[in-house]
């Protein structure tokens, strides 16, 4: 018997074509730089609160607006839990659904603990040192650069150092290329045939795991050859995240060692999440600062004041980061217009009703950041770049959600904030820049918002050292 007959009225909407559903319309809207149009058209046609569609081969119920975000965030593990499309699982995980399903919550808990440990490892001075080295090697003495690949080099190199202690640029570049293939596949149509992006991504993820397993084995050999386990444990907080993962201890101090494949999979996820979203945000910031000289000048003024308070050669510290209020407002406005997280999937773990509609157990749901970020009800004149939106108390709750919310809010938020602000501190003090392409190089959401040509710019060094 249909679920609607048992439990009540299902949300309105349409399923589109067999198998592909409304995926083509969804991807077309993103390619045109207006992913929100997919949601707004259906909110207008069916309901401003909820509608059904078909994406990633599944019937999906979309909860819209701040109310929908609040409902899903606040009912995590009560009514809903995380869900990943099978295509993404196939790329990122080596184990089967049967092997994973019984331990999903424990897996997620471990991942969040490890993500939090990564944040604790971050030293602002170390990040500052790596940023300085990055600019000296890749930007200085160049008249023209393409922003996106250079920023990706910065964020991925930083993640490799903090997670794996890899500082060899050749090894970093090798891994980065494979991760690029994985990301292309995640964002492609999931057709597993030889030569497709999806198929290449599956192969690349297997190769990444193989290389990570080799790194893990070597790390274990190094740890075993150290003086004593007690000395190792005492110095763990000073070492990379891989060391901590090998010696992982849960909250109750009961030692639970993960096997090598578990560690490899978690590193794969951390490296992917630790560099791709910040890369997107920094690239968007560079785009908007090139287009808006008044905003650029205000960021520059703030960063010069911070630089003037430092002794020659003194590295940035956490107090300096706290002073970058306007710069962070700029970053937030860039995330509002070009959010790297358009939304996320959930699955109902019990029957429930929402806005008078029946949601059966097992239903796939989706919360959408773009359904609020460009909604004039929450952000007047939504296409205008206006950092003042984030002054004072900022936007209304659950309207600005680039890091999600609730128990599953992105654990890397503080890490991303440091990474972005340290980069901004250096880039504005070193250069002014202008876009090389005529017209506006629009951001295309695939689903990450990226400039079509990678944002090539002409650099102009400041005439004096700040």
A few lines on this structure:
This protein is α+β, with helices and mostly antiparallel strands and 466 residues long. Helix content is 52%, strand content 11%.
What does this structure look like?
- By secondary structure, this protein is of the alpha+beta class.
- The chain has 19 helices and twelve strands.
- The chain starts with a helix and ends in a 5-residue tail after the last strand.
What's the SSE blueprint?
Elements: H1 3-7, H2 23-31, H3 36-45, E1 50-55, E2 58-63, H4 65-74, E3 80-82, H5 86-92, H6 97-101, H7 104-121, H8 124-138, E4 144-146, H9 147-164, H10 169-186, H11 197-224, H12 229-235, H13 241-246, H14 260-291, H15 293-308, H16 318-322, H17 325-337, E5 343-348, E6 352-354, E7 357-359, E8 364-368, H18 370-373, H19 413-430, E9 431-435, E10 443-445, E11 449-451, E12 456-461
Parallel strand pairs: 2-8
Antiparallel strand pairs: 1-2, 3-5, 4-12, 5-8, 6-7, 9-12, 10-11
Helix pairs in contact: 5-11, 8-9, 8-19, 9-10, 9-14, 10-11, 11-14, 14-15, 14-17, 14-19, 15-19
């Amino acid at each position: 018997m249909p679920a609607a007959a048992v439990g009540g009225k299902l949300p309105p909407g349409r399923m589109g074509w067999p198998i592909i559903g409304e995926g083509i319309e969804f991807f077309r809207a993103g390619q045109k730089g207006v992913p929100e149009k997919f949601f707004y058209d259906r909110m207008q046609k069916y309901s401003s609160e909820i509608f059904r569609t078909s994406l990633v081969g599944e019937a999906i119920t979309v909860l819209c607006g701040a109310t929908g975000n609040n409902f899903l965030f606040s009912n995590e593990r009560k009514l809903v839990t995380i869900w990943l499309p099978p295509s993404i699982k196939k790329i990122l995980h080596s184990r089967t659904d049967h092997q994973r399903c019984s331990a999903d919550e424990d897996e997620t808990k471990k991942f969040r603990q490890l993500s939090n440990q990564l944040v604790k490892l971050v030293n602002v001075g170390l990040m500052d040192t790596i940023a300085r080295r990055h600019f000296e090697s890749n930007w200085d003495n160049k008249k023209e650069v393409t922003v996106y690949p250079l920023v990706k080099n910065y964020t991925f190199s930083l993640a490799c150092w903090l997670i794996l202690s890899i500082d060899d640029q050749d090894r970093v570049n090798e891994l980065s290329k494979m991760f690029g293939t994985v990301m292309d596949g995640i964002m492609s149509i999931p057709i597993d045939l030889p030569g497709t992006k999806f198929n290449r991504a599956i192969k690349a993820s297997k190769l990444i795991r193989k290389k990570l397993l080799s790194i893990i084995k070597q790390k274990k050999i190094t740890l075993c050859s150290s003086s004593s386990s007690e000395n190792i444990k005492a110095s763990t907080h000073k070492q990379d995240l891989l060391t901590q993962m090998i010696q992982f201890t849960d909250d109750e101090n009961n030692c639970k060692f993960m096997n090598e494949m578990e560690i490899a999979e978690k590193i794969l996820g951390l490296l992917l999440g630790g560099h791709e979203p910040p890369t997107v945000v920094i690239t968007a910031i560079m785009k908007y600062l090139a287009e808006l000289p008044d905003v650029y000048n205000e960021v520059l003024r703030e960063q010069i004041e911070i630089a003037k308070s430092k002794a020659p050669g003194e590295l940035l510290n956490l107090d300096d980061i706290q002073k970058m209020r306007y710069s962070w407002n700029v970053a937030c406005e860039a995330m509002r217009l070009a959010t790297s997280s358009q939304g996320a999937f959930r699955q109902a773990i019990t029957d429930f009703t929402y806005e008078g509609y029946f949601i059966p157990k097992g239903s796939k749901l989706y919360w959408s950041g773009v359904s609020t970020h460009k909604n004039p009800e929450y952000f007047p004149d939504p296409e205008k770049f206006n950092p003042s939106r984030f002054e004072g108390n900022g936007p209304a709750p659950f309207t600005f959600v680039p890091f999600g919310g609730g128990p599953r809010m992105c654990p890397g938020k503080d890490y991303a904030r440091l990474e972005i602000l340290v980069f901004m501190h250096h880039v504005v003090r070193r250069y002014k820049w202008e876009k090389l392409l005529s017209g506006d190089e629009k951001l295309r959401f695939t689903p990450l918002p990226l400039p079509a040509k990678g944002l090539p710019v002409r650099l102009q060094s400041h005439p004096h050292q700040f």
